[in-house]
Give the backbone structure.
Amino acid sequence: MSKEPILKIRDLSMTYHRLNGEVKAIERIDLDVYEGEIIGIVGPSGCGKSTLLSIIAGLIKPSSGQVLLNGKKVEKPTKDIGYMFQSDQLFQWRTILDNVLLGLEIQGRVTKESKKNAENMLETYGLGDFINSYPGQLSGGMRQRAALIRTLIVEPKLLLLDEPFSALDYQTRLAISDEVGLILKKEKKTVLMVTHDIAEAISMSDRIVVLSNRPATIKDIIEIKLTVPQGIWSPIKCREAPEFRHYFNKIWKELDVHVK
Amino acid sequence: MSNNSISQEHYKYLKKIKRRKQIISITQVTIFILAIILWEIAARLDLIDTFLTSSPSDIVKMFVKMVEGGDLAYHVGISIVENIVGFTAGTFLGVIIATALWWSDFWAKVLEPYLVVLNTLPKTALAPIIIIWIGTGYQGIIVTAIITSVVITIMNMFNSFISVDEDKIKLLKTFGASKLQTFTKLVFPQSIPAMISTLKVNIGLSWIGVIVGEFLVSRAGIGYLIVYGGQVFQFDLIMMSLFILTIVSVVMYKLVSIIENKYLKWHQ
Ligand SMILES: Nc1ncnc2c1ncn2[C@@H]1O[C@H](COP(=O)(O)OP(=O)(O)O)[C@@H](O)[C@H]1O
Ligand SMILES: [Mg+2]
């Protein structure tokens, strides 16, 4: 990880304008992300996390500053950046296979091989029996897995996940975050993941960016080094690491949550 | 779920539900048959004035006479064609205009008050003008039918188009979708159920347009039969026309429902 960063965020600020005033959402954020890293982003709700991801994805223009992906300025959405939302956003009139192929279809890249590839991926990640089912027939966890495959299949260099598990119930969430963590590591993806679940962030990330209250500024960047029991990495096992509590308390303090 | 694995209690429950459904259907049919029989009896016993109410047997006689003469098929056929052209064209035009409005936020905003006002106007009030402008043939009638359904189609479809989830649009954008792709892959397919329910409403609205048009033009069609029946005090003819109108519109509505169930499996 000593190479050039894949993603460079430079002096990024964002102000929303509305009739009843302006909202400063992000203030002077600088961040480097290296290839293969999973970065967790935590911060108080409404601080500007989704805004940050939207800017990185090229969906909205920042007020100032820039985002560079492999040295190239991101100004509009590019196929090198994949985005995953809080809810799966599967199209209910498409079969799971057709949903997974959506991105390729839009980019005009559906071929026999890519179809085969999609089927294989669905097979690998436990959705083989549901290739021709409709989203309504799947559980929340399976749907979110399908959404992940839809994002991965276009082979983005960078993945942005915006609270990807928060629509799921607690147990599904634990299971799916474990699976997704393993998938992301296996596929060697570079990931920025927003979450409000501190434990989830620690268990999945290589580094965690702690954001301040709005306007979001970087309060701290914490490198996560966990001694995983038996040496086999997985997000669930990470939760058993002795250092886990230490990180949890540190981040909890930095978030400085006050229930008003 | 297999049937042999259900418990006795559950079986009883299912049976009870089924039984209740049957009783409701039987009662519905019985009420209809009873009403017809009572009507006929009252007519035979001279309890009602058949000059003003006709009677089921006279209606049937009239029906047979007109079928044999070939008049019925002609008039009903004309009305059905006018109606089908009316609601298909109305729906089609409405969807096209709604699409244009979705495309241009500016024009959607500009035209909004006009649509609201047009929507509150009873469209059949325009029928006399339309018939003068377009002509007193079937064209005038069809345009009247189109006008009755097009405005509500625009409003329903436009509302459906703009109610698409923002995040789904964002998702397509992250894949690099163009505006046209956003429409064809997401906005339009998502609105197909709304389009079919609008189509169902439009069948009824278009019938209003067709009948009013035929009242005014007075040359052919079910509406013409009704007006003519009124002018010559032939209540058998009026009643028969009303029955046929009811049956035809129910059948058309049902056909659309069948298509809906067949092609919209995902919608449930
Ligand atoms: N499109 C927008 N227009 C105006 N204000 C917005 C818009 N999107 C977000 N905001 C405001 O910016 C702030 C940050 O929002 P967001 O990035 O969604 O926060 P988070 O994802 O951290 O909860 C919030 O106060 C929100 O109200
Ligand atoms: Mg958010």
About this structure: The mean pLDDT of chain B is 92. Chain B has twelve helices and no strands.
